[in-house]
């Protein structure tokens, strides 16, 4: 399994508007890189600005894939992506890049055409639901690995919030509920999380407090014993560069094709030593540079 599959950030379906909102201005307030425009302290107001705007500026951050791109799309707004032609071929493969390039040729910001705008913005919204929702990303992983009919998942991860880990886990939890056991519990994705999230990445917007707490699993479960019994059909490492917990035990009781490694780091070099260390497992990487 030397192939590395591309993967992208995603967004919970509950965060995607059901139809394109009414517009009241041309461009969203936030200008990437201009900290004076980062004025929103709550998710509702942040989303509302994109919902009211026809277009929004966005660009590469530390990595090409960026939650801001998806948040713009999910709120029924067209992202104006700076230097879109520089995105590596195997990065952001789940995004509607060809459609965006087609839109940019129309130059609707300067050559306004309401009919064309409505046509394109609705196509983008449909694409987002079908390809960039957390559920669709979880299904993509299962399709690539041939595990569509499984019943139980062990999702292992640790450390600080990680967009790829958190969003992908939300997708699996949405599909499988308690049959997807996040260990240790990623507590901040549940609605009963009581701590302030302003110090988290992006202030916790989009991924924080999404799931009903009834979907939590028993954090005191005897995970090693369950691994030995092969209780789970597959084991997913949500951020292999940050957590290899129980890997020796997992490798002992699980076949290579039952172990899935994810790496969502901005720096594509980060994944190399881990993928080299575990060459025979399924591997998914967010930022894959052109060779």
Report a brief summary of the structure.
The protein has 291 residues and is α/β, with parallel strands linked by helices. It has helices at residues 43-52, 67-74, 97-106, 114-131, 134-145, 163-176, 223-228, 247-253, 272-277, and strands spanning 4-6, 25-27, 53-58, 78-81, 153-156, 180-183, 234-237, 259-263, 282-285.
Overview of this structure, please?
By secondary structure, the chain is an alpha/beta fold. Helix content is 31%, strand content 13%. It contains nine helices and nine strands. It has a six-stranded parallel sheet, with helices on one face. It is globular. The two termini are 19 Å apart.
Could you say which overall geometry the principal axes of the C-alpha atoms support? Answer: globular
Largest sheet, in brief, is: 6 strands, parallel
Query: How far apart are the termini?
Result: 19 Å
What's the pLDDT, averaged over the residues? 96
Q: What oligomerization state is this entry in? A: single chain
Number of helices: 9
Order of helix and strand elements from N to C terminus: EEHEHEHHHEHEHEHEHE
Spatial extent as radius of gyration = 19 Å
Helix content: 25-40%
Percent strand equals: 5-15%
- How is the largest sheet built, in terms of strand order? 1-9-8-7-5-6
Low-confidence segments = none
Secondary structure category = alpha/beta
Count every beta strand, where a strand is a DSSP E run of 2 or more residues. 9
């Amino acid at each position: 399994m030397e192939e590395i599959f591309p993967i992208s950030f995603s967004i919970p379906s509950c965060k995607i508007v059901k139809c394109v909102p009414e517009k009241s201005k041309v461009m969203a307030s936030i200008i990437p890189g201009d900290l004076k425009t980062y004025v929103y302290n709550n998710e509702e107001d942040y989303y509302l600005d994109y919902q009211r705007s026809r277009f929004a500026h966005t660009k590469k951050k530390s990595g090409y894939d960026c939650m801001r791109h998806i948040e713009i799309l999910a709120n029924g707004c067209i992202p104006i992506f700076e230097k879109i032609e520089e995105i590596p071929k195997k990065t952001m493969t789940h995004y509607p890049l060809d459609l965006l390039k087609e839109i940019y040729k129309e130059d609707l910001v300067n050559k306004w055409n309401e009919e064309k705008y409505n046509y394109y913005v609705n196509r983008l919204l449909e694409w987002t639901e079908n390809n960039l929702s957390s559920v669709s990303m979880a299904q993509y992983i299962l399709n690539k690995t041939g595990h569509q009919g499984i019943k139980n998942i062990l999702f292992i991860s640790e450390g600080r919030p990680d967009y790829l880990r958190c969003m992908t886990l939300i997708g699996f939890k949405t599909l499988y509920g308690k049959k997807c056991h996040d260990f240790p519990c990623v507590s901040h994705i549940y609605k009963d999380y009581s701590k302030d999230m302003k110090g988290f990445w992006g202030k916790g917007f989009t991924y924080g407090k999404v799931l009903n707490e009834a979907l939590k699993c028993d954090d005191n479960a005897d995970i090693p014993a369950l691994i030995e019994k092969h209780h789970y059909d597959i084991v997913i490492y949500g951020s292999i560069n940050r957590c290899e917990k129980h890997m020796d035990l997992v490798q002992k009781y699980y076949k290579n094709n039952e172990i899935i490694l994810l790496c969502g780091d901005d720096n594509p070099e980060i994944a190399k030593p881990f993928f080299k260390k575990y060459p025979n497992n399924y591997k998914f990487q967010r930022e894959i540079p052109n060779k």
